[in-house]
## 1
Amino acid sequence: MADYEKLEIAPPKTRDIMADKQDEPRPPARARRNGMRIAFRELRFWYMFLGLIMVLYQIANFVDRPLLFLFLREPDFKGQCAQPEPLFPGQNEELDRLVDIIEGDAFRNASVDRLSGAVQVKTESFDDLGEVGQDPRWEVFFNFHKYLEKTFPLIYERLLVEKINTHGLLYTWKGSDDSLKPTLLMAHQDTVPVPSETIGSWTHPPWSGAYDGKYVWGRGAADCKNSLIALLETLQLLLEANFQPKRTILLSFGFDEEVSGRRGAATLSAFIQDRYGKNGVAVIVDEGAGFEETWGTLFAKPGTAEKGYVDVKITVRMPGGHSSIPSDHTSIGVLSELIVKIESEQYPTRLVEENPYYSQLQCGAGYSESFPKKLKKLLADSAFAKSIMSPMCHNRSNNNNKPDRLALEAAKQGPAIKYLMQTSQAVDVISGGIKTNALPERATVTVNHRINIGETTKIVTDRLTSISDEIAKKYNLTLQAFDGSQEKANSIHLSSTVNRLEVAPITPADGSTNSPFTTLAGTVRAVYGKNVIVTPGIMTGNTDTRYYWDLTRHIFRFAPGYDADDEVGLGKIHTVDERVSVLNHIHTVRWFVTFVRNMDEARFDTDTVAGRGAGKCGSSRDRAECGA
Ligand SMILES: *[C@@H]1O[C@H](CO)[C@@H](O)[C@H](O)[C@H]1NC(C)=O
Ligand SMILES: *[C@@H]1O[C@H](CO)[C@@H](O)[C@H](O)[C@H]1NC(C)=O
Ligand SMILES: *[C@@H]1O[C@H](CO)[C@@H](O)[C@H](O)[C@H]1NC(C)=O
Ligand SMILES: [Zn+2]
């Protein structure tokens, strides 16, 4: 506005008046009036233009939609989901021959035997296991170690194998260049138990390791003895082909992943960090998400994020007494009121930009023919709003109060998608009361939560505290919220269990930069072809990697095996008829062989010598100790 006045009106007028005083002929009054009218018309035009912009702006604000987007081109969704070219390792005849070996009959037959044998060694883990060395149920892992040693003699002969906390396994294949941070590959040795009453429902007995020409069946076949065996097969093949790594390769196998990993992964990661230092490894690949066909496109979805986790236990304590003279409300009634309140409202469906599902939508919009039009539009709006507004105004993470239209639309695809963008709450366990003629003195409920990306467990505990506070006031009870205190009489007591976990740090996953993600994605496209689109994925469950956050930002929860004809996928994990397609397994090995070679050739900015890292395994004195 200020600019306009200065330029368009003031100067000409002044000059006109000055001109009158010169000897130039004075223009006729009519012409002067005309000139003014023209000036006014121009002015009016600019005012109208300005008004129009303000109206548009108001409308845009009102409908929460940048209307100006209509005049602009669609955002570059493909660019937001850059796909690296297929990445093949440098030529090496002996190593290149591995692909044919892996795809051959002899390897397939031998691989079936190795996998089947691994399934036949029971390695169940139970929630109530005691400490290692005390509870005899841990001893099954000695059998498993024997089996591995017998099956992979070359590895045990040539590499360093260390046992951490008795049953944790750490394999080290020392690289020749100490300045390169190691590649760390993970799996777990334990499986969930098979409840004895379900054994009869299995098509093949759960520890048979039966092979029917396509699948190997049994507990652990898909979660995750398949990847554990595939990793050892990978190293064995590379050893046989005289591979000489520059970058150190580590395999780390925990033994209690299914019961929180406290004894296995936790002690392994501490050991590894002690040796290589904080941020001491280049990349971690652990079990996780695999491939999925959506919107007509095949996506590989390595998990780059994990939702957080918190179980909250709420206990209501109220006076007991005889049932014949009850109070109006017992602890069970009050707890019920609390539960109804908790369930009456759900956490918001919100998709922050850091959430890998946001990237998945961009990838879908960029590459999938049948990507839903409405989603694409909302996605474009979001991208546009971001491009014109200041980061503070349009930071999806900050728009806490407005409904997230993009997330709500995407959530229509079903609850499995919705809960990629929403903190879940599930009232799972309840108990209270012991006798029909006694008022219950105590009633307890446990509510399970998985925390949305961009949120924290504190949001959950704050909300439950505020709801409980209301009820506590109503019934004159003392509130003891997450303060670690002992339960008192006449109280509502809240606590979170030990497995509380924040949302995992997000793994960088920009396919247009030189990063471990790009190496991983390039390997996927080298093995499966360019029609596979690699997009960051999100895990709603937690893996052993929860203990490895300090070792690297570059953590991927990824099952790299894909078999187009395997209709089951990983659908049978943790239940009856768990099985794995052998073709899937073969592809897993092929992928890991390629990935390890690609990582060996890759160089990253983060590949500086780790301070302590070079430490224990760096010097020549320590070399023998760390495997050569
Ligand atoms: C692999 O096993 C099948 C039967 O399971 C057999 O027919 C075939 O000859 C074996 N191939 C090799 C190379 O051992
Ligand atoms: C958005 O806000 C969140 C929290 O307020 C912050 O962590 C994040 O870095 C912001 N993102 C951008 C792109 O500014
Ligand atoms: C609330 O409880 C306290 C003791 O816990 C008691 O002293 C007080 O009288 C109670 N108030 C009401 C209104 O019942
Ligand atoms: Zn698992």
## 2
Amino acid sequence: MPELPEVETYRRFLNEVILHQAIVALEVRDAHVLGTPEDVLRENLVGRQVTATRRIGKNCFLELSSGQVLALHFGMSGDVGAYRHDHDAPRFTRVALHLADGLRVAFIDPRKFGRIRLTESVAHYQQAKKLGPDALDVTATQLQQRLSPKKTILKPLLLDQSITAGLGNWIVDEVLFQAKIHPERRANTLVTAEFEALHAAIQLVLTTAISHEATYRHFPASFLIHARGWDESATPGTEKHLFCPKHSKTKIAKSYVGGRATYVCPRCQPEPVKSE
Ligand SMILES: [Zn+2]
């Protein structure tokens, strides 16, 4: 699933190929991914330019010269691409914007859970979709203000896009590991230093993931993500990736928290003491 790091990578790509170029045609190959009727989209896109790109959490925005905004959500399997000739269109291209210089920008989505829709502004979309501040912009103080009144466990709160937008399942596990906080701690038990550690870990994990363009096998060996077994290439032919990068004899434990697969180091992230 495209998470914040993937969507930021897509945004940077779009920013490079699409900015300040007239859109000369809208090609819809599968209307299933449209959240706005095709004729309305065409009317608002053709003849216009993209003046800026933005992102909040997993949502990417193309600001149009008309003042309106095209909002892209990538669902389970969305991606972007560019091509020049019809026969070079990437497989599963659902929609393409044809630009004045001949380039075509593809919205690719094999599983079709992604959506393209027109919205009046980024702020309007953010409010309508109840999105909190982007995870890369949120400050330690904001995190503390939003989380410390909550008596529930931390991990589902961090996944809640209305508290902070853009933290997905593996990212939350990595953040909590780097911050040395157990996912089942109650939010109201965290002290200021822990909110600061949480904030620093969010920055570390997201900037690392973006700098590697979300290619997990290139992530540092100090990351927990390798224990998920999505790739073996960090430590080929060994089981090293199943152990804590800081405690080579402690195996990373897998459990389910709020119904989501969760990985922790039992030594780095001590379980909360049951006080009641
Ligand atoms: Zn550890």
## 3
Amino acid sequence: MKKGIIGICSLVHDTSACLVDCATGKVVYASAEERFSNIKSDHHIPFYTINECLKYAKKNNYNVKEAAVAYDPEYFLGDNFYIIINSILKNKKSTSKFIDFLKEKNSFFNIEFNFNFINNFFTSNMINIKKKDKRKIYELLTYHFNSMIKYKKINQILNDFLPGIKLINVRHHIAHAVSAYYNSGFEESNILVMDGQGEEDTITIFKAKKNTLKEISKTTWPYSIGYFYQIATFALNYKIGDEYKVMGMSAYGKNKFLKYLNKCFRLNNDGSLTLNKNPYLGIKFFRDTKYQQLNFTNKLLNLIEKPINNNFKQVHFDFAKSIQTIVEEIGLSLAKWAYNKNRSKNLCISGGVALNGLMNNNILNKSNYKNIYVYAASGDDGTSVGAAQYVVMKKNNFLKRKKVNQVFLGYEDNKIKNKNYIKKKLHINLDFVKCKNVFKFIARELTKNKVFAIYSGKSEFGPRALGSRSIIANALDKNIKKELNLKIKIREPFRPFAPIVLNDDYKKYFKLNFNSEFMLFICGTVEKFRKFMPGVVHRDNTARVQTVGRDNKIFYKILSEFKKITKIPVLINTSFNIGGEAMVNSLEDALNSFNQMDIDYLLVGEYLIQKKKRIEKKKIDDFIDNRNKLFNKKNPFPRIDILRLNANFYTKTSRVIIEKMKDNLRNKIKGKLFIK
Ligand SMILES: [Fe+2]
């Protein structure tokens, strides 16, 4: 029997799970929970996906005794907390004693507990501190201790769910770093991690060599570049997870806000980031707690006025562009700082900010790094993989690693090879297309601007559709972008579409010097070819390219046939979903979505399906309702919302919320009162 380890991301959002082979370190199964819940950037504990991992392990003879979880509750009480407490107590011994005492406590946090707890500790341990200082510590606890307790509780829940499996907690930024480094194939590399926040970390820089990591710089909350992008996203009336839309908007704007914002951040000599005092971007302190976060001041927000219902004016596009430029410049400065500290030719970039393909390309073009690797799931979903691979890597420093450039690792309906099975699942108005060579047929129809959905094999890990759950269309048509956005994806008209292009040809059309399989580098387009592929050239003449080799079988065959007809092996590839919905997952879901959407054909495995007649479509809200019902029916697991567990950060107002939360959880997990 083989040995496997489960990886779990259950931090804030984009929860996920994976199964890693302990002997090779390879990921054999991985998925984001959203693929099974239809909640984009899902913020629930990923029970369904963990269960899928266990099922996969059983079927494929893996013995699983360990699970790596991509956060470390005790890290909340780490170096930073020590420094802060010690600055109040001014006594190393007392500080250590106090922190050790905190670590032992597992009671759920509330005001009374906290208050009594602190008083008792200081009285019984004969440590004399002033009332004022006690108050300071009490406030600090509301954030640090509370965070630790929250994640200990999640561990407790996971323990109950995984009897006999030992949980190993891995610091969130280490999990991010390893997900990139382990799969890059680089023997040595610098690693730049940037996200909203993981425990206390917001930006970390590591150097890695022969499977060992050394941290060389760290920035902690509230100085977060990921959160900076997030508050800009909120200012544009988008929600968490919509940051990529802001990146798309930036192409339409000018850097008009740089004069206000470009001096806000300061990169220190030790590689950490802080704020310069300025009137536009500050730190908001919460009442009665040490919790703090970045925020734009009213002076800045008044300049842009929040858009309503995506009614964007030029000022919003200018704002998006300015934010984008700042993030690109900070990313580049950090990468250069790391290079000066450790002159490696390789760089791995990870964390949610690494999904910013414009920033990645800017670093590649303007730094001394020869190679840059970004893992397909560089957001939080990928930390399940990083956590599991970290545990494997630590046990075996000599484990050989290879560059990973395909991530078809998720759900698969094996029966799609069986024509009779598909036939049984077809809606009444759907039928197979009879054709000799399906790929030739697809290529020919694409030139007539027909649109195809593809449902095949295992789903992709990471937020991009890379060929298993895709919609493809003719990139050479000048109206296709508008049509796809409005009719098929039902989303804002400014949103760009990404190209797929054959490995042999991409240099001719795109300013890219290496294979880029995960759409994580947004590069320039070659001027003389722009007019031939209007569907994939964004307003600023860039494109988020996915290069395709023979190992991506379906895309490779379609592009090759398309090239024979048009001489240009470039097509549009976008995710198979309606705007705002998670990508399709099961065959049933694919058939329902195809039926609903204005797509001409659906390729299921090797079988092509068409609509016999135009059917009366369901209202979009009804369709989404039905889709949710289908997902819920298949999901028997409790739904524990991690975000709701955050609610007790605020001391004075928290009590009511805590009580509500307890009831909620009690109702949802019958018979299991894990809240004391
Ligand atoms: Fe993260």
## 4
Amino acid sequence: MAPPKSKKSAAVKKLQTSAANGGRAPGGRPRKATSRSLYSPAEVHEIFRRFSVQRPEPKGELDYVNAFTLLVAVVLSAQATDAGVNKATKALFAAADTPARMLALGEAKVGDYIRTIGLWRNKAKNVIALSKALIDDHAGQVPEERDELVKLPGVGRKTANVVLNVAFGQHTMAVDTHIFRIGNRIGLAPGKTPEQVEQGLLKVIPAEFMRHAHHWLILHGRYVCKARKPDCPACVIADICKSKEKTTGIPAPLVPIAPLEETFPAEA
Ligand code: SF4
């Protein structure tokens, strides 16, 4: 006889169905946003403690030399791979690593450098426009406030959060496709929009882990809790995870991962 369904598994199922339906109830009715994590504070702490043992100093995979080039790289990375962006920006940043130099380069030349990146025409336009805005409104410096960053051409909330976190060490959470998936799949911070997942994660992740939480979650989603098929036997939080998609409850050995062991899969 099948064991009775626990309340917990029913709750996980409900959240996962909601996420899969874009936050709609089965009948198509909009479902009330939920941001309740399925995990206790102790469980969340343990999840991030393990991530911190695996990758004590996680690095993003976009190359940059200062806050300005980080901002440009993140703008260029929309709907492109980090590896593809890095190939194009190597020469671009050697030619222009400040807003003034980028402006002097001009839209046509910027376009020549980034032609291998999707949507390059529009991105070249934005890179020039944001360089001009930085010079006109911020004395050539990248602002450290989200409200100012999102006013720049081509800069949305996610880009602003990456720059604030990586360049300025602020405790922000830039929710990309990986983080959105993990937040919902495992019920860490369920939400039907990236902003709901962002708010949920900011609420549950202990402050001591916020500096690197964004990178840990992205890398976990990119290499382990993958979109099509999570690699649960390789997962260090398999015993804590409450996803109904998990295939094992035995966690992988908790050992530090050298950055070189990570590859650059081609993905959207
Ligand atoms: S156990 Fe599987 S589903 Fe859960 S976080 Fe790990 S990889 Fe993802």
